[in-house]
Amino acid sequence: MTEAELTILKGKAIQQKDVRSLLELADYSCQEKDYKNAFNYTFQASLANSKDAYRKLGYFYEKGIGVEIDYKQAKIYYEKAAQINDNRAKYNLGLLYLNGLGVEKDENKAFNLIFESAENFEPSAIKALSVMYLNGIGTIKDENKYHECLIKLEDLGETDIYYALGYDCYVGRGTEMDFKESLNYFLLGSSEGDDRCDYMIGTFYANGIVVEKDHNKAVFYFNRSALKENVKSMYNLAVYYELGVYVPKDLEKAMYWYEKAAEKGFNKAKERLENLKNNCN
C-alpha cells in the first residue's frame, strides 16, 4: 500500500468512521505487526455493530493480539457476532465451549454451535464436525455422518481431505468398501503433496490392489513419501534395501532409512537397525 493510499484509507477510517475502511486498516496494521492499532481500529468498527469487527475482536482476545488474552471477553464478542448470524463466530464460540476456555466446558453446546455453523457451509466447522462425529464428541458416534462431512468438504473444494476419503473407501468406514474409489482419492491427495496418500499408492502397487503389481512404482511412491518424512514409507524402503527386494541390496541405504524412521520413534525400525548393525559387526 502506498503512502497516498494509506492516507486516504486513514481519512475514511478515522474521520468518516467507515467500517470497511477501519477493518481494512486493521488488517494492514496486522500485516505491519502493529497489533495494538489493529485492535483499536477493530474496536472502533465494532461500535457500528459490525459482526466482522465483533468476531475479530473475539479472536484478538482469544489469541492475545494487541491485547492481553481474555477468553471471557472473547466469548462476549463471539456471541455478539453470532447473534448477527456470523457463522465463523459460531464456530469459534463452539471451540471455546469444546475446550472450556472462558466458559464451563460443554461438549453438547459446542456440538450445537459447530453444527449450526457447518450447516451454513463454514469449512472449518464442517471439519470440526466430522471429528466430533467420528469420535462421538458432544453427539453419538456416527461414521456415516463423518463421511458425509468429508463429501461436503470435497464439494466445497477442500483438498486436504483426500486421504481421509480414500481411507474410508479402503476400510469401508462410513461408506462401502471400494478399492478403486480409494485409489482415486489417494491419487488426488498425492497430487496435493500428501505423503500419506503416496504411501497408500505404494501399498496398492506393492500388493496389486486394483492395479497390476508394479514394484518400480511401489518404490517410487514409497520413496516420494519417505522424502516427506512419512515413517511407514521410510521403514518399507529400509526393509527393501536390507533384503534386496525390488531394489538392489544396499545396507548403507537400509541403515539410513531405519535411522530416519527410528528417530521418529518407529520401534520396528529401531529393532531392525540394531539387528542390522550387530550382523554387520
Overview of the molecule:
By secondary structure, the chain is mostly helical. The mean pLDDT is 94. It has 16 helices and no strands. The chain is 72% helix and 0% strand. The termini are far apart. Helix 4 (51-63) packs antiparallel against helix 5 and helix 9 (143-155) packs antiparallel against helix 10.
Strand content: under 5%
Biggest β-sheet strands, sense, barrel = none
Bulk shape: elongated
Portion of residues within helices:
over 70%
Mean pLDDT: 94
| SS-derived structural category | mainly alpha
- The count of helical stretches stands at 16
Count the beta strands. 0
The ordered string of helix (H) and strand (E) elements is HHHHHHHHHHHHHHHH
Low confidence ranges:
none
Radius of gyration: 25 Å
Measured distance between first and last alpha carbons: 65 Å
Which tags fit this structure?
281 residues; mainly alpha; 16 helices; elongated
Give a concise summary.
With 281 residues, the protein is mainly α. Helices cover 72% and strands 0% of the residues. Helix 11 crosses helix 12 and helix 13 crosses helix 14.
